[in-house]
Amino acid sequence: MYVFELPEIGEGVVEGEMVRWLVKVGDTVATDQPICEIMTDKATVEISSPRSGKVVGLNGKPGDVIKVHSPLMHLDLGGGAAAPAPEPAAATAPVATPAPTAVKPAPAAAAVLAPVALHPAVAAKMPRPPGEKALASPAVRHDAKARGLDIEAVPGSGRDGRVTRADLEAYVTPAVEPKAPPALSSPAPGQGDERVKIIGIRRKISEKMVQAWRTAPHFTYVDEVDASRLVEMRKSLLPLAESRGVRLSYLPFVMKALCVVFREFPTLNAVMDEEAFELVVRRDVNIGIATDTPAGLYVPVLKRVQEKNVLELAREITEITERTRSGKGRIDDFSGGSFTITSVGNIGGRFATPILNHPEVAILGVNQIHDRPVAVNGQVLVRPMMYLSPSFDHRVIDGAVAARFVSALKAALENPWSLVLELR
Hints:
The chain is α+β, with helices and mostly antiparallel strands. 25% of the residues lie in helices and 22% in strands. The strands form 6 sheets. The protein has a 6-stranded mixed β-sheet, with helices on one face. A 4-stranded antiparallel β-sheet has the order 1-8-6-3, with no helix packed on it. A 4-stranded antiparallel β-sheet has the order 5-4-2-7, with no helix packed on it. A hairpin with a 4-residue loop joins strand 11 and strand 12 (278-281). Helix 7 (251-264) packs across helix 9. The longest helix is centred in the middle third of the chain and has 16 residues, at 200-215. It is globular, with a radius of gyration of 26 Å. The model is unreliable at 80-126 and 174-178 (pLDDT under 50).
């Protein structure tokens, strides 16, 4: 009998969510045959069997969180009778949102949320042995630090003693006759209703959005761009792009304009270190592109944009987004971002209020270019106009800085021939 454990599937990855099994108990598998899909904070990866044999046990079901080095599959290498399959693992805490650090609260918040007494049900639990680290997902550790709690002191009620969000709540509940929290309201059942369990990428998107909204106070600043010259420039470069087999959109021009403007506003190309409460200003411009896929929203990242010309960026955008949509994205494709662009211009709409891709401090909404009448030097003319709608982390970006940044970006896009000097 051979027990295959979940291997290490990325630097810093300690657990992953089971997406789906590709084999079942009783199947015979070959060496290097894919057996399941596991979703980490960075990507969905296929796990392959290191040995050949007959599957006699599978641990975990879709939506379960599997810890690295935990038993994943039991194989009979001799091809004998199948042993009873173990019971599926119980669902555990959700996989963490993609956050490199945890939130460090202000002293006042820590004082308010400091534990006054252990809840009786928690106090009755045996403490973990001295020196043993608490088991908890990064999301729960994030919540513990946001509350000013030492997670090592919180008894866990989950599988293998894992600390859950409920344990955090119990830990800070006063022991003197606490009032029961109001019950969450459930929608009344209706005939023909369908309930869809929120797991996988949809759950990760949900957690990421909640974390970003709770952590960083957002504000959005909207301005319009006369895209006449931008449209002309792209049109003039289309034959060259097509001769090189490149699909040229407006995004590469926006990226090069950002590179120019970041020189004057470097704090926009930055991420927050929540643990140290420091702004980390990036040297490289690594721009993420919010990408709609059949599986949900992903943000692949183009690295060192400042070193590439418009056609190189156009080619790389096509390659990385196609890789993402086909489910073949690499873990490195989704890490290291310093700024994000979200564009739904090909669908429609005038402007939006994007949510930050935390820990980044800004995100740029690029919207549809549309013809409309505008006043130009006292005359009403029809021009191709486009709205920019970026959002900012108001903790570190003031409104005046944001306004100047957008004005500079607008100027660069309205005079795009200056970007010719930035083609490399």
